[in-house]
Amino acid sequence: MRVRGGGAADQGGGSNVKEQTVIELHDAKKTYGTVQAVRGISLNVYKGEVLGIIGANGAGKTTTLEMMMGLIEPTAGKVTVLGYDARKQPAELKEKIGIQLQKTSLYDRIKVSEALELFQSYYKKTRDPKEIVRMLNLEPYLKMHVKKLSGGWQQRTALALALINDPEIIFLDEPTTGLDPKARHDLWEIILKLKAEGKTILLSTHYMEEANKYCDRVAVIRAGELVACDTPDNLIKLLPGGQGTMDDVYVEIAAATKGA
Ligand SMILES: Nc1ncnc2c1ncn2[C@@H]1O[C@H](COP(=O)(O)OP(=O)(O)OP(=O)(O)O)[C@@H](O)[C@H]1O
């Protein structure tokens, strides 16, 4: 099922009042010195959807995700996640969301099983690690050091750690970057399983065919602004002539020169 559009800054798409908003960005801005990383983004994210974020390098995808995760404070505007003010209630939020970290040295020196135990200790409520290990087929790797695993299995371990608190919302920053096609496919199978459990999934990606195939909606960020957010089909309809591919959406909308 594709969740339909209707967010605050959505262009096109219908709205369905029955959809439950789990994240609300209201004119969120983030400035680093003189760099305006995010220039006022308004967006609603709905329960149970897979929302992809696309845009050129430096467009502001990670900054937008980090504001939603409560990791960085917006310079202005408001970010509400599951009813919590992401800026003022990061501790409450932490219990409810899962973040798949990019490559990090944090768990490089420990075994997969140890990393799972360590992450369990961070949360009040946790999901049975055995269940997570089963879902991700991690059993044969439990006694291996994380740094000895292939990129695909390291990503999977990172996802397992993000699931340890049974989060309602899962954030994945470029989860399939650098993975071989089979590992990418397998990771998407898991993401779809999590979606089937009712989880909301937000991810950034540079792979347009993945955005097309797996995302209910795709948010297009260009130079810190949300320029479109809709289903892949509806984004394609925005193209000149109303047809093309998500690669064309990327070229024509995400990577277009401002004002072109
Ligand atoms: N901590 C920081 N300090 C200063 N500038 C930053 C910081 N984090 C991000 N920026 C700048 O903010 C802008 C947006 O960066 P961001 O990482 O959000 O982009 P992105 O779309 O995720 O890029 P990529 O696809 O390369 O990961 C860039 O110009 C970046 O250099």
TrEMBL record:
Source species, domain of life: Bacteria
InterPro entries referenced in this protein's UniProt entry, alphabetically: AAA+_ATPase, ABC_transporter-like_ATP-bd, ABC_transporter_ATP-binding, P-loop_NTPase
A GO cellular component entry from the record: plasma membrane
TM segment ranges: none
Localization annotation: Cell membrane
Pfam families with a match to the protein in the record: ABC_tran
Keyword check for Nucleotide-binding: yes
Protein name: ABC transporter
Species: Tumebacillus avium
